[in-house]
Amino acid sequence: MLAAPLQVRVATFNCSLNRPTQEQLPADLATTANVQAQKVAEILQRVRPDVVLLNEFDVDPTSNPFRVLAMNRFHANYLAVSQSGLAPLNYPYRYAAISNTGVPTGAASTNGGDFDNNGAVVSSYSDTATTAQKDLYGNDCFGFGWFPGQYSFVVYSKYPIQTAAIRSFRLFKWKDLPGHVMPPGYYTSGEQDIFRLSSKNHVDIPIEVKPGQVFHLLASHPTPPAFDSSEDRNGRRNHDEIRLWKEYISNAPFLYDDDGVFGGLSSANGEQRFVILGDMNADPLDGDSFNGAINQLRNHSLVNAGPNPASPGGAEQGPLLGGANLNDIGAHANDTAYFSPGTGNLRVDHVLPSKAGFSVADSGVFWPASTDPLYGLLFLSASYTQGNQITDHRLVWMDLILTPVLSQCVRNLAAERQGADVVLKWGSQAGVTYRVERSADLVQWSDQPAIPIVVNGATSMAIATDPGAGSTTGRFYRVVATLGAD
Ligand SMILES: [Ca+2]
Ligand SMILES: [Ca+2]
Ligand SMILES: [Ca+2]
Ligand SMILES: [Ca+2]
C-alpha cells in the first residue's frame, strides 16, 4: 500500500513586528486590535504555512515568560483569531530566538568595544535617548539594536520541534571562521577577541514531520550590508554570516555551538534534509552584497536553488518604482522587498531546501498586484505608500515533498528474543526497501529472504522475525536499506 507523500509548506516572512522599546511589542499584542499584526496574521492565514520563520520579531531575552510572551500573544490574539473570515491557525510548537541584537559587550575601553570606531564605547541605553544616541549604543552591541532582543526571530510549527536537539551559534566568534573577510585593519585585536559573527542568532531547529522524519530548519537573519562605510564591515559580516550555514551543511569541524559542541550537520550516515531560510539581506544578482554572498549557498552542491519563487506584485512594482530597479539584473518578479528607489527592490528573503530529502512541488512570494483586492493587506491603511507598509519585506513560501534520506532510514534498531524467535525492530521510512542480512562471524554476511519484514506505515515501524532463532547463539544481524519503494 502506498502512503500519500508527505508535503510541508515552509515560509519565511520578515514581518517587522519590532518596536522602539522592549515593552512595546508585547503591549501591542495584548489585544486583538493592532492593525499591523492583524494584516501579518491575515497573510499567514491566506498562505497557511505548516512551518514559518518570522524575522524582526522582538524577543525579550529575560527568562520565561518574557522570552515567549510576544510570540504567544501573537498566536493567541492574531493567528488563532479569524482575520477577514479566514480559518484561524494553530501552531502548537514554537521557538523564540535569543539574539545578539542590542546586547552590550561589557567592554570598557575603546580598544575592546568601539565597534563603529567613533571613539567611544556606548554601553548603556535609555528609552528616552535620542535616535542618534540609541544608534550609537546599537552600533557597539554584538548586533545592532536599541535593546536586547530587538529584531530577533520566532518560529511557529504545526509539527513537533525536537527541542533537545536544537543547536545555536550565537556565541561563535568571527575570528574563528578560517578565511574570514573581516575588514582589514578595522577592528582592534581586543575587538576581534570578543566579536560574535551572528548579528542575531544562527539556529538549527529540527522539526519532526512524522515519527523519524525530520528536517533541519536553519534560521537566521544576517545583518544588512548597509549602514557602514568604505570598510564595508556590515557587507563583510553579512557574507560570513551566510558562510556560517555553508560551513554548517558541509559539517565543518571548526564550528562550535553555544553548548561547546564542535562540527556541523553530519552526513556520516547519509545526506541530511534541511531548509535554510530567512531574510538573508543578500540578492543573488543585485544590491550591495559582498562578493555575491548568497551564492555561497545557492551554488552549494547540497542545496536546491532551482525554485525561483515569484509574484505579480514584484514584477509590477520594480519598473514602477524605477531608480536602481532599472539597472537590476535579477527578474523583478523574484524580488521580496520593496525598498527605496535608491536601493531598489531586492530578492533578499530565501527558502533554500536541501537536494536530499525533498522535491519541490510549488513556491511563491505573497505580493499581490495593485489591481488585486488583497493589495491593501501590504499597507496599514488605504494610503498605499512605501512609508505606510506593514513591512518592507514579502512572505516567501515553498511546498516541499519529503523524499527518503538514508540517514533517517533505520532508527533505533533493536533485537530481542521472543520465545523461539529473534525479533528485530527499527524505525522505518516510506519509500525505502529493507532486507535483513545475517552473519555468524561479522565477516561473512548472507541475505535472509526467509526473514519476513512487516512495515507499519502509520507508526513508521518495521518488524522482522527470524523464526526458530531464539535458542541460537553467536548470530548477528544487520538491516540493509535501499532508497526506492520495493
Ligand atoms: Ca574599534
Ligand atoms: Ca562606538
Ligand atoms: Ca556596506
Ligand atoms: Ca530587483
In summary, what is this structure?
The protein has 486 residues and is of the alpha+beta class.
Can you walk me through this structure?
The protein is of the alpha+beta class and 486 residues long. The protein has 2 domains: 7-403, Endonuclease/exonuclease/phosphatase (Deoxyribonuclease I, Chain A); 407-482, Immunoglobulin-like (Sandwich). The protein contains 9 helices and 18 strands. It has helices at 24-28, 35-47, 66-79, 110-113, 131-139, 189-194, 233-249, 295-298, 312-321, and strands at 7-17, 51-57, 93-96, 153-157, 167-168, 203-210, 213-219, 274-279, 349-353, 358-366, 395-402, 411-418, 421-427, 432-439, 446-447, 453-456, 461-466, 476-483. The strands form 4 sheets. Strands 3-4-2-1-11-10 form a 6-stranded mixed sheet, covered by helices on one side. Strands 5-6-7-8-9 form a 5-stranded mixed sheet, with no helix packed on it. A 4-stranded antiparallel sheet has the order 12-13-17-16, with no helix packed on it. The longest helix has 17 residues, at 233-249. It is globular, with a radius of gyration of 25 Å. The structure holds calcium ion (4 copies). One calcium ion binds next to helix 7.
Strand order of the largest sheet: 3-4-2-1-11-10
Q: On the 0-100 scale, what is the average pLDDT?
A: 95
- What would CATH call the homologous superfamily of the largest domain? Endonuclease/exonuclease/phosphatase
CATH class bucket of the largest domain: Alpha Beta
The ordered H/E elements are EHHEHEHHEEHEEHEHHEEEEEEEEEE
The largest β sheet comes out as: 6 strands, mixed
| Distinct helical segment count | 9
